[in-house]
């Protein structure tokens, strides 16, 4: 259905330049189809450009449009291929009378046939391909997407998923515990494995390579894999638990990543790791490899903050979460709320919901603008990492719930009595808090007392609480939801 | 004798805490029942980390909603197998989970012999690892 604003026939296709709105990319009465891909952008228009023209420009440039009229459109069912901007709302607390220039939430619908199945690369080439540099917008941010079930079903999804990961690890009813080996750079393979062994034997479930640990002069990858697997197996024997070390297989080529993954498998590793910077297609390929080889696939979100942090431009991390769940990773770093990295509690909860829900309702306060049916795609485990310690256990459990890997890097290795003691402190704090919560205690308020009581019989916890008692990172978040309790009318 | 801090197998949700009292066990049962989960009691004399299938002390108690009744089953299992590992397991039948949601040990042998790591040297520096449960050096039924 063409809208009233669109010109028809000969007039529409006259050579020259006409506003996007009049080219058919603005359709306020558009009826959304169940199979449509939906996207919501935050638009900051250039001075003098109307919000709905901006929205139409984004719809146009992320689908069929070019800057001028082309007659070859008339050889196609072009009406279907055009994305339709169907709604524009003023962002609360922006525009005249506020400190921020006007921003708009623009909703755009794309027909499913615009996209190739099972290809994040193709989806993103449209949605974020060209539009972010367009002159008509001063700034542009992709806030959320609705992926239709029909399209989701073309993706593998997480290679292992939360449920099977827990079954393989034999760990239920509590968050998993991990830590990143520190220092990030400089340890030899032998020294590196020592850290892994101590922390796993002490009580952590996982140890982890950092994002930039690949194969450097101080430690080539094979040495790291060999020593770490000795550490993992030795710790497993010492505790009777399944343990793992995220072997970072990130490398310059797919061939090299496959070779490293195969070696990890041959040594009996249960988990490998990749970095977001390897690219969407490489991630999908590694997810297929992981599914085929019974491997858990951990993703470090290296690089994401270059485009996800600023509120007016780039994209929300919740969209990355969505794409990565489709691409097939089992773990993704998704924030801590209380640690050293960016994170408003409700926004972080929104990321976690996106990774874990089977069905997500609209929740504007969490930044979730679309209902999403996950079509039985496996759940992806969020990972909380960066500046967290045992003394925050009640807050972590309150904000993040059970399905999360809590990573205490400094909070384990920096313990005054050693790495094993650090791990014991974290594991004891976790278990005592889970027990208290299950008993119905109010851990948000009683948490510090629960920890203090446990510290009376657990020396390592006592020392840990002493060391980190005053460490908090209270900065205001740059990215927060613009809660809209009632929708504003279309402009 | 195991060499970790507690000299014990640390599987399950609460192995770093002092052994659970009946009151504490009951509180955890209530939590599971409140969530609509079914509880089950399982025991083994081989706590190898990848020994998934411990023996079932009867089927999961889908229809038993009384914490005291479930505690009675646990204690009956403890009486029958005083030197075995016994765990309480909760199952959720909710779509999207349909798996184990809790697992905690409520009984263990007085002496836990633990595990040995068998290293088989292969090509280059590569190693094949086997975790060996010392308890299984003895025949079934004579291990603890």
Query: Could you list the spans of chain B in which at least 5 consecutive residues all have pLDDT below 50?
Result: none
Q: What's the overall geometry of chain A? A: globular
Strand order of the largest sheet of chain A: 5-6-7-8-9-11-14-15
Strand tally of chain A, please? 15
Largest sheet composition of chain B: 4 strands, antiparallel
Helix content of chain B: 10-25%
As a whole number of angstroms, the C-alpha radius of gyration of chain A is 25 Å
Q: How confident overall, as mean pLDDT of chain A?
A: 93
Proportion of residues in β-strands of chain A: 5-15%
The CA-CA distance between the termini of chain A, in Å, is 20 Å
β-strand percent of chain B reads 25-35%
- Residue share in helices of chain A? 25-40%
Distance between the first and last residues' Cα of chain B: 13 Å
**Largest interface: pair, residues per side:** A-B, 43 and 46 residues
The number of distinct helices of chain A, counting runs of at least 4 residues, comes to 18
Oligomer: heterodimer
Structural class of chain B: alpha+beta
Low-confidence stretches of chain A: 484-491
Mean of the pLDDT scores of chain B?
96
Number of helical segments with 4 or more residues of chain B: 2
In short:
By secondary structure, chain A is an alpha/beta fold. Helix content of chain A is 37%, strand content 15%.
């Amino acid at each position: 259905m063409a809208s009233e604003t669109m010109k028809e026939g000969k007039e529409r296709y006259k050579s020259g330049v006409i506003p996007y709105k009049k080219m058919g990319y603005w359709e306020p009465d558009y009826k959304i189809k169940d199979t449509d891909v939906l996207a919501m952008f935050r638009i900051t228009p250039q001075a003098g450009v109307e919000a709905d023209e901006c929205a139409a420009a984004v719809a146009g440039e992320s689908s069929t449009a070019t800057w001028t009229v082309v007659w070859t459109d008339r050889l196609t069912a072009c009406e279907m291929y055009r994305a339709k901007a169907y709604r524009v709302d003023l962002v609360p607390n922006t525009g005249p009378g506020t400190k921020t220039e006007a921003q708009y939430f623009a909703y755009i619908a794309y027909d499913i046939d615009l996209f190739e199945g099972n290809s994040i690369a193709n989806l993103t080439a449209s949605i974020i391909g060209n539009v972010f540099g367009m002159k008509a917008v001063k700034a542009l941010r992709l806030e959320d997407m609705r992926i239709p079930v029909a399209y989701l079903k073309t993706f593998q999804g997480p290679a292992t998923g939360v449920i099977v990961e827990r079954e393989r690890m034999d760990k239920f009813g509590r968050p998993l515990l991990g830590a990143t080996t520190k220092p990030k750079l400089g340890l030899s393979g032998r020294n590196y494995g020592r850290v892994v062994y101590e922390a796993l034997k002490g009580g952590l479930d996982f140890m982890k390579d950092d994002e930039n640990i690949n194969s450097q002069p101080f430690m080539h990858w094979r040495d790291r894999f060999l020593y770490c697997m000795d550490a993992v197996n030795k710790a497993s024997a010492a505790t009777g638990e399944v343990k793992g070390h995220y072997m970072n297989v990130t490398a310059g080529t797919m061939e090299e990543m496959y070779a490293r993954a195969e070696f990890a498998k041959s040594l009996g590793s249960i988990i490998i790791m990749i970095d977001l910077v390897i690219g969407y297609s490489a991630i999908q390929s590694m997810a297929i490899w992981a599914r085929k080889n019974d491997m858990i696939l951990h993703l470090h979100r290296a690089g994401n903050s270059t485009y996800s942090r600023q509120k007016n431009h780039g994209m929300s991390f919740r969209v990355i979460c969505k794409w990565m769940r489709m691409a097939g990773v089992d773990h993704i770093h998704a924030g801590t709320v209380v640690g050293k990295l960016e994170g408003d509690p409700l926004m972080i909860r929104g990321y976690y919901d996106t990774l874990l829900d089977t069905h997500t309702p609209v929740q504007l306060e969490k930044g979730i603008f679309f209902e999403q049916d996950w079509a039985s795609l496996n759940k992806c485990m969020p990972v909380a990492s960066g500046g967290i310690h045992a003394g925050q256990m009640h807050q972590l459990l309150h904000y993040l719930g059970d399905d999360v890997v809590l990573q205490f890097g400094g909070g384990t290795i920096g313990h005054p009595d050693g790495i094993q003691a650090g791990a014991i402190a974290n594991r004891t704090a976790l278990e005592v808090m889970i027990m208290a919560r299950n008993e119905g205690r109010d851990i948000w308020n009683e948490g510090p007392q629960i920890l203090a009581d446990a510290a009376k019989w657990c020396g390592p916890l006592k020392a840990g609480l002493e060391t980190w008692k005053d460490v908090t990172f209270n900065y205001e978040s740059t990215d927060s939801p613009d809660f809209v309790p009632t929708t504003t009318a279309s402009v | 004798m195991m060499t970790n801090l507690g000299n014990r197998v640390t599987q399950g949700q609460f192995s770093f805490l002092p052994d659970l009292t009946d009151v504490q066990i009951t509180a955890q049962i209530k939590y599971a029942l409140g969530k609509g989960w079914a509880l089950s009691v399982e025991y083994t004399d081989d706590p190898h980390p990848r020994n998934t299938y411990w023996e079932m002390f009867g089927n999961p108690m889908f229809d038993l909603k009384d914490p005291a009744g479930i505690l009675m089953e646990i204690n009956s299992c403890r009486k029958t197998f005083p030197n075995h590992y016994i765990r309480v397991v909760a199952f959720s039948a909710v779509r999207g989970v349909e798996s184990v949601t809790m697992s905690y040990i409520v009984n263990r042998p007085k002496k836990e012999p633990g595990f040995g790591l068998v290293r088989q040297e292969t090509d280059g520096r590569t190693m094949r690892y086997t975790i060996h449960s010392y308890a299984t050096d003895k025949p079934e039924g004579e291990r603890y």
